[in-house]
Each structure stands twice: as C-alpha cells, then as structure tokens.
Backbone:
C-alpha cells in the first residue's frame, strides 16, 4: 500500500517513537509525508535535573532523526494525566487535524492501553477517524493484551533510526523500557513472527482501501 500522508498521534512526546519509530522511518523513506502530533510535553513529571521544557527540545531532535520536517511537528500543551477532563476539547483538536491534514493512515495508541492519557487519545482518535485507516501501535508496558494483526517489516537502517531517535530523549533514559537492547529485541521478536529480521506490529482498528 502507498500511504501518501501519515498522521501519528502521540499522547506524550516519545510515545510515537517507541510505538512506531521504525515504521515512521520506513514510511519516510518511501516518500510518505508524515505529521507527528504530541499532546503533552509532560512538564509536570520531568526530572528536576532537566529544564521543564526539555521534552520539547528532545521531540524536535527525535522526529528530525526519523525524517519528519519541523513544519510537520505539532505540539500541544495539555497537562499530563488530565486528558480525561478535557476530552471534548481534545476531540475537537483531532477533528481539526483530520480536516487540515487529510491523512490516509493514522497511528494511535492501543484502544486497550491502560495509561489514562493514552486511552483518551486512542478513543478520541477512533471517533475522529472512524472512516480512515487506523492502526494502534504497541507499547508493551501499557498493554495487558495486544492483537498482532498487522506487521511492517523493517530494515536494519529503520531500527537504527528508531534507536537514534529514542536516544535524543536523554531525560527519559532512566525508564526501564528506554533500553536499546529491549527495543532492538522487541523488533527481532516481531520480525521472527513474520520471517523478517525486524518488524513492528500493530492492531488493525480499521482498514480502508
């Protein structure tokens, strides 16, 4: 399939890179115009040794590494873990994105993601893009269950691009899943499932041809 315009909805900066960074790299290589939207830079939970806006600097570097032009990076400033009280506002923002960008492929968190902010972005994303191709990306630490129904094969270069992008998040390196060995191993596991060296897996919410 030839996706001309791709939209990645990330509740927080770095969610998109973790969930579909390799696929973003592959789609960028193939000529897809990619838009990355992050709804929170998590100012309230940044470690004290970093500036509170560090994730804004980091997401700019990370998305550039994946081939996304700065003009296609859209950042909102919702406070982390408060999305549920602002879901109508968030839905309206997503509908505006739909009308402005008109993507033919949209990535969202899993509809079963247990993080409250991820859940809201996923659910409002489904509402806004119910007539579009929707794929949910994998974040194993937040997914109690995940249906491996769609795979994107990745090259070594795609995986390395994802790893470089995630290394841009110096403020997040303390997290257990921000681990190069884990990220690379997960890519290998998903690759083995389809006879490829590397892959990323997605749940199909809706597929429109």
Residues:
């Amino acid at each position: 399939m030839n996706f001309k315009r791709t939209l990645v909805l990330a509740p927080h900066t770095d969610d998109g890179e973790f969930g579909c960074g390799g696929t973003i790299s592959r789609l960028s290589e193939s000529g897809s115009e990619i838009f990355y939207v992050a709804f929170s830079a998590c100012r309230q939970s940044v470690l004290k040794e970093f500036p509170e806006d560090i994730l804004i600097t980091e997401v700019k570097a990370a998305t550039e590494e994946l081939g996304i032009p700065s003009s296609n990076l859209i950042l909102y400033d919702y406070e982390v873990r408060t999305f549920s009280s602002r879901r109508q506002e968030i839905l309206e923002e997503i509908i505006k994105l739909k009308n402005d960008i008109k993507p033919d492929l949209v990535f969202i968190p899993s509809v079963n993601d247990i993080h409250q902010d991820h859940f809201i972005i996923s659910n409002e994303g489904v509402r806004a893009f119910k007539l579009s191709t929707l794929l949910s990306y994998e974040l194993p630490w937040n997914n109690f269950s995940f249906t491996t129904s769609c795979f994107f094969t990745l090259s070594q270069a795609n995986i390395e691009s994802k790893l470089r992008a995630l290394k841009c998040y110096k403020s997040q390196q303390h997290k257990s899943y921000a681990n190069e060995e884990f990220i690379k191993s997960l890519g290998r596991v998903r690759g083995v499932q389809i006879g490829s060296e590397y892959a990323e897996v997605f749940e199909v919410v809706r597929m429109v041809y």
In short: The chain has a mean pLDDT of 97. Residues 1 and 88 are 33 Å apart (CA to CA).
